Amino acid sequence: MNTQLSHVDNPSSNRAGGAMIDTEGQRAIQEVQAAMVISKRFPRDTKAALDRILNSCARVSLAEQALYTYSRGGTDISGPSIRLAEAVAQQWGNLQFGIRELEQRNGESTVEAFAWDLETNTRQVKVFQVPHTRYTKSKGNTALTDPRDIYELVANQGARRLRACILGVIPGDVIDEAVKQCDATLNASADIGPDAQKRMVDAFAAYRVTKDQIEKRIQRRMDAITPAQVIQLRKIHLSMRDGMSSAEDWFDAAKIAVPAPINPVDEIAANPGGAKKPEQKHVEPKKSEITNESSDTLI
Fold first, then answer.
1. Following DSSP, what letter does each residue of 178-203 receive, concatenated?
2. Which of 36, 37, 111, 280 has the fewest C-beta atoms lying within 10 Å of its C-beta?
3. To which H or E segment does residue 153 belong?
4. pLDDT digits (tens, 9 = 90+) for 183-196
5. CA 163/CA 182 separation, integer angstroms
6. In this structure, are residues 186 and 71 in contact, taking their beta carbons and an 8 Å threshold?
7. Cα torsion at 168, 166, 87, 156 (round to 10°)?
């Protein structure tokens, strides 16, 4: 009896699940059709869209996050960041873009990034795998189990592909004009005052980069930094924050001085009589005598 009932119940549940899938599919099709109809009814004004993009790039808050730089093969490569790509897509209009996690199994996620120009029907889609692991030079590959860590990893990897999709849909000359405007905005607003220098040092300190390493990178003291170098450091910081590069790609690691080993011949020459040196008893310092070393000497 139980077997017969189970055979009777399963088809109905399957039909219910299939009906829900069909309903969702029809709804998605209707949304796409409506978006395409609206884009044809209200076409894009290219000149007005470009003016909106340039006005957005004139904002300092956007320009500071608009460009990134990373080192590859000894050459610095610079380009528009995901933030600039999103801002351009929003002002370009009649454009759908985003990231979808298609499935998650066996310790990895299958993700889709897409950008679709509804007017020209130009579409860029990238489907890729994101293993739930994080690589560091000190620990190697570490498996991720926290859902938040997995979400942030997928979002970070998806943002890079989304940027490529958006840049593949929007004309290249529009992106070039946006980059030029961002550079002009940064050059006009670069702050080299003491407060700005302190904020920059504090921002890099989060990645264990010291002031000395920054000064070695720019080949001068922080109080003599130029506006162009401020802009370059901002791009480097943005690249590190977005995971495009690491601190080791830009700054020389501080080297800890190691005392040279004692040569036995030199030791005999310094003590020809062979007399033993008096032993020095180790005395524990008092708590009041213990001092903390500065962070510059520890790094």
1. HHHHHHHHHHHH---SHHHHHHHHHH
2. 280
3. helix 147-169
4. 889 888 877 888 88
5. 17
6. no
7. -130
Q: What burial letters (b/e) apply to 50-75, b meaning 16+ CB within 10 Å?
A: bebbbebbeeeebbbbbbbbbbeeee
Return the residue matching tokens 């029907």: 121
CA distance 127 to 221: 46
For the chain, the C-alpha Rg in angstroms (whole number) is 29
* 206: DSSP letter: T
Question: HEC states along 154-180?
Answer: HHHHHHHHHHHHHHHHCCHHHHHHHHH
0.70 exceeded by pTM = no
* Cα–Cα distance list, 282 to 277, 285, 286 (Å): 15, 9, 13
Q: How far is residue 277's CA from residue 197's CA, in Å, rounded to a whole number?
A: 52
Q: In what order do the strands lie in the sheet with 108-117?
A: 95-105, 108-117, 122-131
Residues 6+ apart with CB under 8 A from 210: 204, 254, 295, 296, 299
